[in-house]
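Run log // design_07
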């Protein structure tokens, strides 16, 4: 297993991702793989010219690995240098990883873009949970880090189980509270033309009861259940302003869906995307 894998290209966004990945590897007691991909984008050229770019890429990777070894307590840090697509490299490494960490964008991204193509790609295709670092940096660096927030679709079991499990485990590792949110609640229809108002208090109680089994498994995590009429993208994006991490699920391989995609693009904090169960 690769443990924790982090994409690193030397940018400020990659440094944020590296900081977070080091935390994850330390807390999980797992090895850390620093990955960097390079390619020659200028058409025909001599092998000597290409070798200059390869050596520059090797130096970038060396810098990331050296930073991790010098500033963290991770016992095993290694580098992976590939020639070719960063997307392909990271997805391949995710097949044997526990967690894949990437920055919101890299050196090739223009400042106006909210998130880079690599982050979107790995979030949609990674075989393990993918964590995209957004906002000011990793938790728990802030003096008062926000909670872990998980979006719950219906009940926190069944297909949503891997998503909820990741959120609880992360909250336990970081000793943070967990907020479970069920969004877009609608009232049942009984064939009447009158608008029915859902009972939010009852829905919160039902969600809290459904979380009981998870609380028994992670007794150290302080949990609160919330229910809202707001659509998931609006509710979770709003909560991200006070959160340390948002955890969302994706339903299909290669497809982020109507919740994960906008949250990933607009959240004010880091976002973890976890594949839901089949």
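design_07 sequence
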């Amino acid at each position: 297993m690769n443990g924790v894998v982090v994409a690193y290209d030397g940018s400020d966004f990659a440094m944020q991702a590296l900081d977070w990945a080091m935390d994850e590897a330390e807390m999980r007691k797992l090895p850390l793989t620093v990955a960097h991909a390079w390619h020659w984008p200028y058409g025909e050229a001599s092998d000597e010219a290409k070798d200059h770019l390869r050596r520059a890429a090797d130096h970038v990777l060396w810098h990331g690995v050296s930073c991790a070894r010098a500033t963290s307590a991770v016992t095993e840090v290694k580098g992976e240098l590939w020639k070719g697509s960063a997307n392909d490299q990271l997805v391949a490494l995710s097949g044997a990883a526990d967690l894949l960490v990437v920055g919101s964008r890299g050196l090739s991204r223009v400042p106006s873009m909210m998130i880079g193509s690599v982050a979107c790609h790995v979030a949609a295709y990674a075989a393990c949970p993918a964590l995209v670092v957004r906002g000011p940096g990793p938790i728990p660096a802030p003096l008062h880090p926000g909670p872990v927030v998980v979006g719950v679709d219906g009940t926190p079991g069944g297909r949503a189980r891997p998503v909820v499990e990741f959120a609880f485990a992360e909250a336990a590792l970081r000793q943070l509270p967990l907020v479970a949110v069920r969004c877009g609640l609608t009232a049942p229809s009984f064939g009447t033309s009158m608008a029915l108002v859902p009972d939010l208090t009852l829905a919160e109680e039902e969600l809290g009861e459904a979380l009981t089994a998870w609380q028994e498994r992670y007794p150290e995590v302080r949990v609160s259940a919330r229910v809202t009429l707001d659509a998931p993208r609006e509710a979770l994006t709003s909560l991200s302003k006070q959160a340390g991490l948002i955890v969302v699920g994706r339903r299909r391989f290669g497809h982020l869906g109507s919740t994960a995609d906008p949250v990933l693009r607009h959240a004010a904090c880091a976002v973890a995307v976890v594949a839901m169960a089949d």
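The longest helix spans residues 47-71.
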